[in-house]
Amino acid sequence: EKGGYDHFMLKEIMEQPKSIEDCLRGRVIAEDLHVKLGGIQQHLPDLLNANRIIILACGTSWHAGLVAEYVFEELTRIPVEVEYASEFRYRNPIVGKGDVIIAISQSGETADTLAAIEMAKERGATILGVCNVVGSSIARASHEGAYTHAGPEIGVASTKAFTAQLTVLTSMALMVAKEKKSISENRLSELLRDLEQVPAKVEQVLKLDSAIESIAEIYKDASNCLYLGRGYNFPVALEGALKLKEISYIHAEGYPAAEMKHGPIALIDEEMPVIFIATRDSSYDKVVSNIQEVKARKGRVIAIVTEGDALIPKMVDHVIEVPNIHEMLMPMISVIPLQLLSYYIAVMRDCNVDQPRNLAKSVTVE
Ligand code: F6R
């Protein structure tokens, strides 16, 4: 059942080229400039005319929502807010007709997310579900939706569901942008081509597993860890930190790298591993300065960089090279080494990787 792997988590990490491929199948055909999610045809006009998109989710799914915020705003120019479902539902939010809610949930059963969309629906908003489990409560409570088709995710730590969520959300943003004509044909074509290449590039990153295992060996006894990224990689920093804390019980925090100097920089000394997601994108130069600030305080730096980067490897303790791709799609690639790093660290610490203490796969109580 674990397909020859020691844990479901590793199996699910390794399945990602296929789960992303499954998620794209029939929906994206770059050659024909085709991008369409069959499940959201009826409510596409609501999306095109939306005053605002509100993304509701919890945990890892909320991190996927943060990436989607940047992607939707950039491509469609519709204002997006991303909210923790548990906060949204209890603060008498301003929501109604003209708002489109995108609810993201692997299980489709998260109690807070379900209650939040029910409230928004009552107040007149359109609800679109992005769920993995077919026929789940959130999928049923939504007006329409698009499944992530990642297959069953058994490991409590979400991995393949996250990359599938990013795939669906990016496709959705591209579909809206195409319809709204808020994107040029050239850019659409470039992004669709890059999207089709994601599975092969993820495959390439998965081959780094033994190199990542060696880095895990060095840092397995750390008691704290900081994850930093900017722009599209900021939510990846949050996700990397969540993966590490939930399965290895190492205290980890993710931050937008620029926020470091507003507090967390005080934590940095030679004992503190800092993981930078520092791929070549529009925030690259800024991230390089942030790495310098950490090195000046003797932090130990592991950097996820774009293949061929000549600068960062000279500055840091370890580098993990990932293939280049459009920055909007990079989270699907840059998160992979972080999943593997947490996995190996947790295994080395003898933790119950698939069923971490105190956690449940679907949180059906608030
Ligand atoms: C983290 C994790 C949780 C879930 C969260 C939401 O690895 O698994 O943070 O992402 O409980 O669950 P779903 O997506 O099922 O609503």
UniProtKB/TrEMBL annotation:
Gene Ontology MF annotations: carbohydrate derivative binding; glutamine-fructose-6-phosphate transaminase (isomerizing) activity
One GO process term, biological-process aspect: amino sugar biosynthetic process
Main location: cytoplasm
Active site: K361
Localization of this protein: Cytoplasm
Domain of life the protein comes from: Bacteria
EC identifiers of the protein: 2.6.1.16
Catalytic reaction list: D-fructose 6-phosphate + L-glutamine = D-glucosamine 6-phosphate + L-glutamate
Signal sequence segment: none
UniProt KW keywords: Aminotransferase, Cytoplasm, Glutamine amidotransferase, Repeat, Transferase
One GO cellular component term noted in the UniProt record for this chain: cytosol
Record has Transferase as a keyword: yes
Domain SIS residue range list: 43-182, 215-356
Subunit field text: Homodimer.
Function, in words: Catalyzes the first step in hexosamine metabolism, converting fructose-6P into glucosamine-6P using glutamine as a nitrogen source.
Protein name (record): Glutamine--fructose-6-phosphate aminotransferase [isomerizing]
Location of this fragment in the whole protein: 248 to 613 of 613
